[in-house]
Amino acid sequence: MQSKSGPPVWRASRRTVMAGLAVGVAMGSEAAWAAGGGSMPGFAYVGCRTSRERNARGDGISVYRIGTDGAWTRVQLVGDLVNPSYLAFDRTRRFLYTVHGDGSEASAFRIDPASGQLTFLNRVTTGGRNPVHLTPDPTNRFMVVANHVVADGVKSGIASLPIHEDGRLGAPVDVVPFDGKIGPHRVEQPFPKPHQVEFDPSGRFIVVPDKGCDRVLVFTIDAAGKLHEAAATPARETSGPRHVAFHPTVPYAYVVNELDSTVVAYRLDRQSGALTPFQIVSALSEDFTGNSRSAEIAVSRDGRYLYASNRGADTVAVFAIDRANGRLEWRGSVPAGGKTPRFFALIDNGRAMAVAIDCMPRHKPTTGIDASQPKRAASICPATRAMSAPPGNRMPCASASKVSVLSRSMSCAAMKRTSRSKPSASAASPRAASVAGYC
């Protein structure tokens, strides 16, 4: 493992027209935001895919300092890491953790609070193969991991790993293998495929979308780190549940289904953890007729908007949430700035969205973003071998990951072009057209 620091090859500011944002080529990667509860400046940590099997060109974990003007400047590259494809902080944000996609391990790093730079602590097994997601429990004593595939006689499932006081991870204290009736998709559903482990806002329940068995499982974790199944809800066959997001104040959960590009709204029973579905909507505009698969989902900090990314349509869908009943209303979609937006994160206290895409377009995308507006968009090209290229939209499309940062104000024109029907007066307003819901 190598750690490289020093001046970046180039830095991109918010004056740059949207290009691409950075992370891995598969299984949901994260650009983790460490602004410490305030607005910019802060630090961003960007993982990627690195292996030849993934046709990847990433180098490891890139650390970026975000300036007060929104410029991202790389201050460190932690290299010689295999597929650091999803990142997570501990609850104190003093430590950073990554799973190693396609492998069977997770690594721990200490964060220097002044420089943001990482120091490697240790690496341990996750008790399964191809870990794709991890999150700390509310006590910050355990890290819960989703092991996505069956390989070498080891079943897919979830596991809990102790977090020691110095930030190091311990060997798994519990591993729960998954069994169940698989879905009908011959390629994507050969066995149970847990894709995420996400705590609900109360911290009592862990919701686990299972892409392979078309179901959403709910677990609890006890004081010893043991995992216990609390509930299970079947999903529509061949839907492929992938990720979940929660309303911040009322008991609604929203699951994005990968294989049929839909979003399902659920009521969450705060006592038992049971999920009851009450609405299903498409994440695609009605005039999109090609192939597409959904990937990430998030709810705005104020609970008014929901976002879902589409790989194929290469868009981020925007829905309004009715707080009274939890139902979703389509508000349009926004181009993601490149191909295959696998992940996104709401950053800068929800005022911006970082979108992880597999590759940038060869030509300038039609985004509806006015390049003359300096706070409309930003672009960087981290964690790739193409960082010496000048900023802009004309970088070649390759299996290196990229990062687009969308500001809270997207143009109304872009939303009108992608809406399912003629927009109402409210839908055409800047508030309704906001991609981050904070206009």
Radius of gyration: 20 Å
Give start-end ranges of low-pLDDT stretches.
Answer: 6-31, 33-39, 363-401, 408-439
What count of structural domains? 1
Major β-sheet strand ordering: 1-5-4-3-2
CATH H-level superfamily title: YVTN repeat-like/Quinoprotein amine dehydrogenase
- Proportion in β-strands: 35-45%
Reported for the largest beta sheet, the result is:
5 strands, antiparallel
Task: Output the structural class.
Answer: mainly beta
Shape: globular
The beta-strand count equals 29
CATH architecture: 7 Propeller
Number of helices: 2
Write structural notes for this entry.
Strand 14 and strand 15 (206-210) form a beta hairpin. This protein is 3% helix and 42% strand. It has a single domain, classed as Methylamine Dehydrogenase, Chain H (7 Propeller), CATH 2.130.10.10. The protein contains two helices and 29 strands. The N and C termini lie far apart (43 Å). The radius of gyration is 20 Å and the shape is globular. It is mainly beta and 439 residues long. The chain has helices at 412-418, 430-433; strands spanning 2-5, 31-33, 42-46, 60-66, 72-79, 84-89, 95-100, 105-111, 118-125, 129-136, 142-149, 157-162, 174-177, 198-199, 206-210, 215-221, 227-234, 241-246, 252-257, 262-268, 275-282, 293-299, 305-311, 315-321, 328-335, 339-347, 352-359, 377-379, 402-407. The longest helix has 7 residues, at 412-418. A five-stranded antiparallel sheet has the order 1-5-4-3-2, with no helix packed on it. Strands 6-7-8-9 form a four-stranded antiparallel sheet, with no helix packed on it. It has a four-stranded antiparallel sheet with strand order 10-11-12-13, with no helix packed on it.
